[in-house]
Amino acid sequence: MDLHDYRDVAENYDRYLEVMYSVRDNYAGFREFYLELAKQYGSGGVVDIACGTGAVLLYLAEHGIMTDGTDLSEEMCRVAASKAEKMGLKLNIYPADMTKFCSGRKYSLAIIARSGFMHLPSPELQRAALMNIREQLEDGGILTLNTFDPSPLFQEKQMATDPEKDYVFQLEYVNSEGYREKIWNAVAYDPVPQIMHGNWKFETFDAEGKKIGERIRPLTMRQTYRQEMRYLAELCGFEVLKVCSGYHGQEAGNELSGLVWLLRKKG
Ligand SMILES: C[S@@+](CC[C@H](N)C(=O)[O-])C[C@H]1O[C@@H](n2cnc3c(N)ncnc32)[C@H](O)[C@@H]1O
């Protein structure tokens, strides 16, 4: 089980992300970016892979682009489907691993938004996912995903972190049951497999400020270097169309950055 597989995480995901990104938004403009891509490339069908609670999927649907959604976590799919139902939208949202999903139709655009791809913990699984997504795309279809350039400064810090002990405060929010919660995390880095592994701690407080609960949820992600990603995409039958720094279409330069990849399925 990983962070997003837990019901409590899925049910509170939108709430704590709102607080997290009100301070520093690594993904500013992502919904609008995907909407523009969907208008440009989505006429043959769009799939939101690792759709989570539907941040992209529902935004596209609100703008008239009916998108399929799939995520490894049944709990995330359940939250996304219930939000869709409340909005009166009939969408195909189903649990599946991106290394294997197949809905029986082809798409002209596949989206993996907000670091979903980084949850694949090995190059073998990344490759399996890219090969499978390629199968689900029409010829010339587009896949967009994102990675973060690994930062040596963070890596150095994380290599000295004990993922069971060295918790750092992240944020405070109000959970779906109306209780105040503090979120802490402790993330360690292993440079050989390029794995970040750690724990998220959720502490719950009553109205008097007394701690009434604590949950620990694990999370594993893999850091991917941009040169590695480029070769992996090519190996799996994609042409790299563009690599942007962030969601405003700016071509990535030499500085470390969050990268948004646009890949086209080669014939
Ligand atoms: C950071 S969340 C992003 C969710 C959503 N795209 C968003 O922007 O809010 C990453 C998601 O990837 C999903 N995930 C992790 N591994 C996956 C896999 N192998 N196949 C499909 N989804 C996966 C998790 O369940 C989680 O919902």
Structural account:
The protein is of the alpha/beta class and 267 residues long. The protein folds into 2 domains: 3-150 and 225-265, Rossmann fold (3-Layer(aba) Sandwich); 152-222. Helix content is 31%, strand content 33%. It has 7 helices and 11 strands. The chain has helices at 7-23, 30-41, 55-62, 74-86, 123-136, 152-159, 226-235, and strands at 46-49, 67-71, 93-95, 107-112, 137-148, 168-174, 180-190, 195-205, 211-222, 238-245, 258-265. It has a 7-stranded mixed sheet, with helices on both faces. The two termini are 37 Å apart. The mean pLDDT is 96. S-adenosylmethionine is lined by residues 4, 50-52, 55-56, 71-73, 76, 97-99, 113-116, 119-120. The site of S-adenosylmethionine (SAM) has 19 residues, from helix 3.
Sum up the structure in keywords.
31% helix, 4-stranded antiparallel beta sheet, globular, Rossmann fold, alpha/beta, binds S-adenosylmethionine, single chain, 2 domains, 267 residues, 7-stranded mixed beta sheet
